[in-house]
Amino acid sequence: xxxxxxxxxxxxxxKEENMSKVAVVYWSGTGxxxxxxxxVAEGAKDAGAExxxxxxxxxxxxxxxxxxxxxxxxxxxxDEVLEETEFExxxxxxxxxxxxxxxxxxxxxxxxxxxxMRNWEERCGDQxxxxxxxxxxxxxxxxxxxxxxxxxxxxxxx
Length: 158
Hints:
By secondary structure, the chain is of the alpha/beta class. The protein has helices at 32-46, 87-95, 115-126, 144-157; strands spanning 21-26, 50-54, 69-73, 102-109, 136-139.
């Protein structure tokens, strides 16, 4: 109340904090998947998320609960499989803890028709992992359309 008896209306403004924390975890041998990872991170940041980018050696199951959403990126290797030395073991360790998180997959390939990505999507589905966005694949170095798809994937996770 003011001195003359009028009610005073107080408005409090809460500083809006980032709505989500997004991890981008990728392995890249030629740099193509790294370009994709950078674009995914850019999209999530543009949408207001706090973004952390990791390689497989920097990420594991102990970090999952720190993030609302995680984008995993890995190119097709050998006979259309995930990179087996670093990425595959890390992803296997994380799989059982990804339920309830916003998850997305991306990667590049130089041959084949994307079988590795279809297998990866199926594997996630078999584990009860719901993908928050359609997987993004780029043949070799991402072109402008591929980069735009990666940015959109990042925005969808934010």
